[in-house]
Amino acid sequence: MANGKSMTVAEMLGFFLDPATPIRMDAFDGSHFGPADASLHLKVTSPNCIYQLLAHPNEIGAVRAYVLGDLDVEGIDYANPYPVLRALFSLASYARRPSPVDAARLAAAVLSHGVRRPPVPQTEGPSKFARIKEGLLPHTERADSKTVSFHYDMSNEFYADFLGPSMTYTCAVFEDEHMSLEDAQANKLRLILDKLGLRPGERLLDIGCGWGSMVITAARRGIKALGVTLSKEQAAWANEWIAREGLQDLAEVRVQDYREVPEHDFDGICSIGMMEHVGVKNYQSYFEEMYRLLKPMGRLLNHQITIAHDKPNGKPGQDEFLDRYIFPDGDLGAPGFIESCIHDAGFNVVHQENLRQHYALTLHHWCENLSDNWDDAVKQVGFERAKVWGLYMAACALNFEIDGIQIHQFLAVKPDRVGHPDGKWYPLRPWWRA
């Protein structure tokens, strides 16, 4: 540390990295680690970085230090830090764990400067324990309303800065890597509606409808579309969009929990990027509710992020960064478990596909858009939150690329036990254009 103490920041870093690591670190105390010509150049600008990592020797400590500027990277694009994350990932083999003796020496060196409670970014939300203490039990209607508002009710203009004109906050579907984001999002909406096979005059329920892109697209086909969301900001945007298009007779978006929708006998239901908010323990009841809302031979299209590998003992989980900064109470399940829940709710699962690479491409487009509109994004939500969003989207892109997470579409049919030997139940083979 500073003031002639026995251990420098560079020496501390040496406990965690092999001396041959091709990385450069310059610290506030004048110490340096690694070659000056390394392509990745870190800067520890404040003692608070050390205290953050000591208090939380996990991703939360690193995220706090980064968001507050105590840990920085030379030349980084805060809107799109993907190149830095990719470079750090490539250096994982150089990491090492300090021995208990070295860890004790390191802690003693830091604490010799006194106990310090480092600051917390204003953008950080309460921990899961703190939310429960406030009576916000995960995935109750009250808690879901609060957590959805935390994520979405910031600024519609901020989301427009990176989502683009489609305002579609889910994975696009690309014909190839050169397809534009707008065309790929339109392609995704087209694919979902084609899979559902709805005709003009039939009824669609879009659960977690976002800013209304699916509702609008369906109404343009003559489908009667109802969208529900827990975000007031989203609903206001969507209904203004519906009015501009003159689609009020066919489309509506409500601020309503899916468990409170009074209508039923829908011809189709889509759930696009909604299940991440439901909670794995509630999957079965969620799909049972979808089954109840559909008419016989109605179709369900569920599009959701999944984990590539089951958690220990089959338990779902979410890292603390996402829980504190992005999606409180967010939860991911494995694709096999999800398909079993759909089946056990009474559906016939007729098709599923993994669109993992498509989400990585989508996120790269979003990061590029955020970079292009950085000044306005900071104006809308502040520097800290804009910085957090760049980190979140870049990290997700990397996670999709390395197969840590995936995204699946499941198409299911509510069976009619009459049988329909004439083939009107559903065609023998997939009927949509891929």
TrEMBL record:
Residues at the active site: C396
Keyword line: Lipid metabolism, Methyltransferase, S-adenosyl-L-methionine, Transferase
Pfam families membership: CMAS
GO molecular function terms noted in the UniProt entry: methyltransferase activity
UniProt keyword S-adenosyl-L-methionine present: yes
Superkingdom as given in the UniProt entry: Bacteria
GO terms for biological process, alphabetical: lipid biosynthetic process; methylation
Family: Belongs to the CFA/CMAS family.
PANTHER family the UniProt entry points to: CYCLOPROPANE-FATTY-ACYL-PHOSPHOLIPID SYNTHASE
Protein name as it appears in the record: Cyclopropane-fatty-acyl-phospholipid synthase
Organism: Bifidobacterium moraviense
